[in-house]
Structure formats: C-alpha cells, structure tokens
User: Fold this.
Amino acid sequence: MKPERWQQISRIFNRAISLDDAAARAAYVRENCGTDDDLKAEVEKLIESHEQAEDDDFIGGLAVEDVAEHFTGDEEERALQKGQQFGDYLILDHLGIGGMGQVYLAQDARLDRTVALKILSADVAADERRMQRFRQEAKVTSSLNQPNILTIFESGEVDGLTFIAAEFVDGETLRDYLRGKRLKFGEILDIGIQVLAALDAAHEAKIVHRDMKPENVMIRKRDHVVKVLDFGLAKVTEKKKSASGEEGLHEESRTEFKTAPGLIMGTVNYMSPEQTQAKAVDARSDIWSTGVIIYEMIAGTKPFGGTTSAHTIVQILEKDPAPLAHAGAPEVPQELQRIVAKSMAKDPDERYQTAKDMLIDLRNLKKRLELDAEIERSAAYPTAVFGPPAITTIEDAKRTAESTVAGISKTKAALIVALVAIVASVAAVVGIYVWRGKRNTPIVPPPTSVTPPAQPRLTYWITVQKYKDGKPYEAPFDLAGEINFEADYQIRLSIRGLQAGYLYVLNEGPTGAGNAPEYVVIFPSPTANDGSEFVAANQRVQIPNETWLKFDKEQGVEKLWLIFSEQALPELAGVKAFTNPRNRGLIDDAQLNKTIDSFLSSRLSETATPEKGDTFTALKTASKTLIYPIRLEHH
Amino acid sequence: MKKAPPRQEHEITQLLAEWRDGNQAALDELYPLVYDELHRLARRYMSRERKGHTLQTTALINEAYVRLVDQRNVQWANRSHFFAISAQIMRRILIDHARRQTYAKRGGGARQVSLEETAIVVQDDLSEFLRLDEALKALAELDPRRSQVVELKYFGGLNNDEIAGVLKISKNTVIRDWNMARAWLHHQLTGSAST
Assistant:
C-alpha cells in the first residue's frame, strides 16, 4: 500500500469513528470516498474491526499479562535463570523442586565454591507458618557441624526472594538410590551408621529431626557419603526441666501433626507411634524412623503401609512388622534383625535410648561381617566382599541376600578352616567347591577367566502426577507397572540399566487401521542425559528429566518401546536426528519408521520378561538386545 | 537485602543521557543491562500472575527503572527514554518466551502425537500472540509511528501522556494512532486479511 493511500484511509477512518451515530458514520464514509469503492471497502473494514476490537477489549491490557495467562509447566515457576547473578551467587543450573521451592546450583563468588541454592517459592513466602519452617531449617542446621549433616552456609533475602545456601551434594536421595535395586548388607550398614552419626550429633545439640525418611537422606555419588537433610521440621527440644529435674532430650515437645491431605502422604510411613498420636516426641522418635528406613533397605518394602494414611497409622500403632526373614530377606543376620526390632519397639522406653547406642551396635555388626567376608575371601570364595556383585532382578536380589547370609553363617566353619591354617591349595579347593555348589556350573575354569555373556537387564517404574481442573493434585506416586490412565494424568518414566549400554525409548501411539505406525523418540532426548543414548551401569534415567509426559485427548493404548543393548543398534542410529526442536521426537520419515517397525516385529518372540516388584518392574531377556513394550492405556 | 550496586545505577543513568543526546552506541550498551533486569522481573511477574497476585500495569517497568537508575538524578527525558527502550525489550522478551513455548508444537499441525512433553504444550492464544507480533512488524513497515504507539502502550504499559512525551506528538494524535493501529491489527488477526 502506498503511504498516501494509507494516510487517506486513516484520515477518513479517524473522522468516522469520532462520530457516535452509525448512520452518520456511514454517511461520512460514503461522502468522503466518492466513487472509490476500494477505498470505501478498506475504511468500512477497519471501522468494523475497530468496533469488534472495542467490544473484545483487543490488546486492551498489558502484553505481559496476556502472556502470563497462557504459560503452563514447571519451568515458569522458576524465578532464576542460568547465568543470572543473584546476590553473591551466579546461577549455574536448575537442580529441581524441593518441598519449599526451587533448588539451583550456584557459584558463590566470594569463596569460589559451588552451593545448592534453595529459593522459597512465592506462595510459601506468603505463608507465615512455612516461612517459620524455612527459617527454622536454616537456623537449626547451621548450628550443626557434622560430616553427615548437610551444611548450611547462609540464608537471607535478595530481591525479595528468601534463600538458603547449602552444601551441594552430587548424588541422589536414598529413595531414588534404592529404587530398582537391592543393597547388600554391608552397604545398608554403612548408610545406617552414617545416618545415626548425623542424628547423634543433632541429638547432642538437643535437636530432633522429626522427619527422617529416605527422601531426606542423600547419597553422594563420588564416595557414597551420606548426608541427612531437611531439618525443617526439627525442633530444639525445650530446655525446661522435666518433673524429674533432668534436662535433656526426653523433654516434651509437641509435634504439629496436621492432617492436611497431601502434606502427610508418604511421610506417615516413617512416623513413630508417639508421633502419629501427636504425643510428645523426642530423640527416640528419630531412632524409630531410622529403624523403619533400615528395615526398608533390607526388605525392599516398608514395614507399615496401608492403603490410606489412616490404615498405616493403625498398623504403626498396633501391628508388628513382618519379620525381616520373611519379608524378602530370608537370611538376614540375626543381629541385624535384633537391632532393627529394638529400634522399632512401640514403647519408646524399650527402644535404643540414644542414637549412639544403636550406632555402636551397627558398627560392631559391620566389623563382624567384614571379618567374616575377609575369612571367606581368604578361603578363596570367588567373588568379592559381601556376596556376588550383580543384583539384577528381584530374584537375584533374594539370592544375593541368601548367599551373603549363607556366607556369614558359615563364619565359624570358615574361621576354623583359617585357624587350623590349612594350606592355600586346600583352601582353594574349598572355594571352588563352594562356588560350584552355588552356581551349579563346571568346576573349571575359575570364574575370573570367564566373561559372562551380555544379557541386558533393566528396571523401570512410572511416576504419575494426577491432574484436576488443569492443576496437579495429590503428590506424584510411583507405579511398578501399568494401569489405566485418566486422560489428564501426566507421567514420567524412570529406567535403570543394570549394565552400561545404549538405551532407546520409542512411543508408538494408537494407529488407525491400515496406517503404518509413526514412532516418536522419547529417549534419547536433548533434555535428558545430555542428549546421549549411552547410559552408564546403574545410572537412573528419568524421562523427561524435568517436565512430564502428557497424553492427548484421544483414548487408546500407547506403547512405549524400551530397547536396551550393550552395543549401539544400527537400525536405530537414525532416530536421534529427530530429537531436534522442530520435530520434538516425531519421526516423520516413512523409511525410518518402516525400519523401526520391522526391527521391532522381527524380535517380538524375544520380548523381555517382566518381573513385578513393589516399586519397580525388572526386565530380563536371554537375547543380546532387550526389547519390551510398556502398555499405557488411557481414556 | 542487596540493591543493584551504585556503579550500575550511574552507568545506566549516564547511558540514558548519552542516548537522549543522540549517541546510538549508548543504546547498545544499555540494552543488555535493561534486558536482564526486565527479564528477571517478567519471569517473577508471570509466576505471580499465575498465583493470582496481579501487579499494577506499569509496575513491572517502574520497578526495573527504580532498581536500575540512579534516583538522585532523575530527569523526565531519561525516564521516557527508559520506558521506550523497556517497551521494546519487553516485547522481545515476551515474544521470545512465547516462541520458545510454541516452537515446540510439533511441525505441521495435522500430525497427531499422542504422548508429548508437557512444557511444550501451550494454549493456542500464544500463537495468536506471536501472530500479533508479526502483524505489528508489518504495521511498522507501513507506518512506523503507529506501530511504536502500540509497542509503548501494549508492551511497555505507558499511558497516553507518557507516549506523547516519548514520541513528541500530541495526546490526541496518540489516541488516533492507537485506534487506527488497533483496528488494523485486529483485522489482520481476525479478518480474511486481503490487505
């Protein structure tokens, strides 16, 4: 359009709309456009748009408001961005969402150290009670100085945002660490000992944690050092003298026990009987909770767990947990059973009275087991300390427990063997005999020279977030397998390969009859595992890493194909190209879809066998490549 | 607790004055400084908005202004220049933001993908928002001043008096420009758009 024309249109338009009466406007336009019908049409069109714009209040507000309304997803909750300066801290990365707000990885410019920066979310900041908890955590924890307690460096406020700067622990929570695998007794004891060392220091300082659970225990990746965190519920036990005049830990201090749904979900399992009844809580309540955690590490299941919080509470108050020996750990050392049972006595007076006492018992047991293992090893037991290394399925886990314990119970025999100082060659024969008896394999060659064939194994579980009216409700929960999903559920898939290998996850949506399937690459993904399809042994991959997967409105059955192999698969080499931002995983290449399709169908007969556990499904296969379709039905 | 260091306040005040006096290079230096501040505020604003704490219209840019500029040396001319650049920057921030979100919508709307990542799901109104930006660019070709009025008002949150001050035109001209521009944009977005 020529500028003169544009000016002409706008002049007539502006005059016309300054007239209130529709007839007068029409007359004005007619008059001023003369015989130029195009001009008249342009002006009339604009007048009509003007009226509609007035009615709709088109761009009547502020852009920032209009945009804000339309954002969804966790990402927008974040107040801070990578590379941003926040007070003395440079934000390096977003780590996740904690109970009170977002957690970032940041660099402290003053001391050149990396910290975890916890920022209080806006709704928490507005909530005085939770603010109180936040300040409490900072105050309480910074007064503790023990290697197994997460160090708090400082807390404060920058730009109206409240923060806590804490030691950064590169690792995972015990909850995540436990998932998909079973620990050996040696490791369980290591973790228990460190947790108790942390509690011992806290209790010495008259601080009760009150919220001990696997989510609050971190395992550092580098050296498996344990860090206890979240002293948010902690309360300094009151210093007033009790009736007996004794000052100390057994003083009364009431727990605030609010029964808000969601708040308690998942927490109640570790509560002591006195805590569930909102009675006085002291250090011995933490001992109970630690007992529950150790029980869970051994058995793989929680000792108390009803369908609702109320059911669980009834169990905590009234039921004795299933004996460990019957709960997935058939031959748990008797001493360990005794320690756990004592820590979980219903009556606090019958429990360990201090964390230190329990700590000493665990340490002694650990020394004994180590000694036993040492003797076993010198008796040429073919595998390393504390039993065979690879726990790959639930069955294996049980077997490991058995063999580990079997080893321990043989202590005396082995000890005698050692003491009588039989020559090494004889010991070796004993070793081979033991090994043969266990594995049912030929005597020679010794296992060190045998590389077992690669049989890929992995475990997976699905995290579900329910939605209601477009908003998340209830805490996310984990599923070992498949359920029927409501259309608005959102999910995450977690996978742990038991050995290093190449992992692919492809989605095959419901296809109409006759249509060739069109696959979507879910993994590898630019947002997980640095975009690589190669995963390390025992590495947990969460897909998607920070957001969720969401179903569309169509109902049907989704297949999530898990494909895992020690070798890269040439058939799937091409899928990575479609993880680009434009495709977002959608493979819009008919040839590649066909290749994938025939690759998957050619191996249907070799589909992996699933073995359902409490919190995960273990997959195993006899072939070199593990293939398994997770079926997700949604309606 | 901690305010922006005074050095920066001076710097921005100085840059604004230089820009006002015709030094275009000052704008290049100013841009990233203001961008960072507005970006941060916009994100905070949007997370608050979703929780129902609405800020007053120009509060966001005002807040940036107060935080960034040396208050002992406030001049109206500086302020309006600050608002002008802020409107431009806000537009860029919001459009980038919307684009990132909608970018992800899988290419070719006809395709059905039944399982997808959530953060990439945005309501259609956001693509509408991006179309508005395109239309505004087309308007700038046709009539730069009217497009600027929209930018200052819609993205910058300036009122008519402030816009008149920034563009050095009368308030009535601002109103007329706005009406024309809005009608034209509305038509571009909703009409069969033959223009």
In short: Residues 457-634 of chain A form one domain.
